[in-house]
Amino acid sequence: MSKKTPINTLSRRAFLKRGCAAIASLPTMATMANLTLTSRALAETAGSLEGYKALVCVFLHGGNDSFNMLVPYENSADFNEYGDYVTIRESLALPRSELLAINDPMSGRQFGVNATMPDMHDLYNQGDLAFLANVGSLIQPTTRDDYNNGIQIPYKLFSHSDQQNQWQTAKPGSHILTSGWAGRALDILTGSTADPNDVFMNISLGGSNRLQTGASVFPYTVDAINSAVLRKMDYGSSVAESTFNTILDATLSENYNDHLLQKTYAEMNRDAVDFAVQMKAATD
Fold this sequence. Notes:
about 280 residues, about 35% helix, mainly alpha, 3 domains, two-stranded parallel ribbon
């Protein structure tokens, strides 16, 4: 049996290690209880609305050839965007016959969706998908001349990893990246009046990340496998369950006011257990 480290001798390194493990598998800190359904933020002005809307962010790490994802399709004598695309891309250009054509009603132009994305093509035609093209994490509109003349550009502009961070933080001019734009939005939405009994607003299926981290809000991390909830495990008998919960309550309720690290660590574990129970009840 491995030797347990008493909390009164818990080192800073062990605290951080265990704290990060708790963050990766369970809700973090007391502010997690402040997460609410989006409909709550709209309650005063849209009380008659049913259900809620969810913003789902799919962040694809790694490279993506976006120029072959949404392709210029016009090839008329007066407006040959596809020809320009072929000239620039050369051997990387996709044959026009293999593209799935879509029409942009605002500009009246046509574009081609990569043939490997038929579902996205269908969603667009159904009015359930929009493309935001030619956008990025620039500080301000920048031309080639602006760049050559030394205009302010994002921190480490051509660094792939830094650009990933800037997409999550929406702060391209800074290398101090402590929060993400979604996390900061949730800081505002939850405020200080959120009901701790509400369902969590900030859920991550991809682990801890900067995008969903705010000043007081952190993502609740889940995965495809249901995590065990300490208070809901099958202990074999009611006596064993009662005994375990008594020990757990005594451990989690103990105050460590004389040591900030001990106090914070105990609070994180206490909240993790309680919030996991709430999450399980909400999703069962």
